[in-house]
Design a protein that fits this description.
InterPro entries: Glyco_trans_2-like (IPR001173), Glycosyltransferase_2 (IPR050256), Nucleotide-diphossugar_trans (IPR029044). It contains 11 helices and 8 strands. By secondary structure, it is an alpha/beta fold. The chain folds into 2 domains: 211 residues, Alpha-Beta Complex (Spore Coat Polysaccharide Biosynthesis Protein SpsA, Chain A), CATH 3.90.550; 71 residues. The structure holds uridine-5'-diphosphate and magnesium ion.
Length: 322
Amino acid sequence: MNSKIIYSIVVPLYNEELVVKETYRRLKSVMDSTKENYEIVFINDGSKDKTVDIVEDICREDEKIKLINFSRNFGHQAAITAGMDMALGSAIVVIDADLQDPPEVILEMIKKWKEGYEVVYGKRAKREGETFFKKFTAKAFYRILKSMTSVDIPVDTGDFRLIDRKVCDALIALPEKNRYVRGLVSWVGYKQTCVEFVRQERFAGETKYPLKKMIKLALDGITSLSYKPLVISGYLGMVTFIAGIISTMGVIINQLINGTEIISLPLILAVNVAMFGLTLGCIGIMGQYIGRIFDESKGRPIYIIKDTINYKRVDKRYEISC
Ligand code: UDP
Ligand code: MG
């Protein structure tokens, strides 16, 4: 019997051998309690440990569990995108594998969905067991991003959320490559609400988001939703131009009135270095946008699937992409 899938739980995995069994156990217990049909879609994002072997064993025992296996590491956002592309449910829940997002909160999200909300995002009321640096940078980033864009992005939310099939289809239709999924969910609109939860400590293992990946995600967030950094660099140019004119006039007037020249080599050097830095910084900001335009123009896919388990070729988009 193949009854309609109501819930798809999308779980990205990158070197999560220490947590994936427990994640499966907790998710299964929560989803079984709904008494409705569901699937759990694990996306292996090029793990180098035993993650795939463990998920393969789970898939063999439980056909509700599906695996999408990437050809290499394409990144968290690409993994979520693949999960959404392949999900068959009427409601799709994206959740991290490390149990920082408690699976039990999914039941509250489902309740809100049944009340008619099309996006239910998890809002982190408190973060347990994370470093001061992580908490501070995350808090600062969400606020900077909010101030830079006209899209109403809720602060302190990650990718842990439930979205309706309609929203999922709207997101799938967006072709952009450097995806900042949580921002795109806000961008598409629909009726949105939140449930608050306490973000837990990682169940086991270490973060798979080193500083480099965090910066890339932050830049994707800002560049995909706002061109304010370009506007700001234009303003900076204007301000320094005006400052230059004023100081030039000061030098000329001083020469005319007092007949003295103000020549301070260290000052000239210092101003030059500062201006050079400013110019390079503005070029760098442009580079961020140009690089992303370059990525779009190549038209490469967001991810490549090596193989899958428990997906039949008749399943929706997979049939098309095969
Ligand atoms: N992840 C992924 N690809 C990556 C990095 C992370 O699929 O390149 C997954 C990871 O396995 C986890 C989720 O993305 O399920 C969030 O990663 P993590 O918990 O390490 O991030 P943090 O909570 O520390 O920001
Ligand atoms: Mg985590």
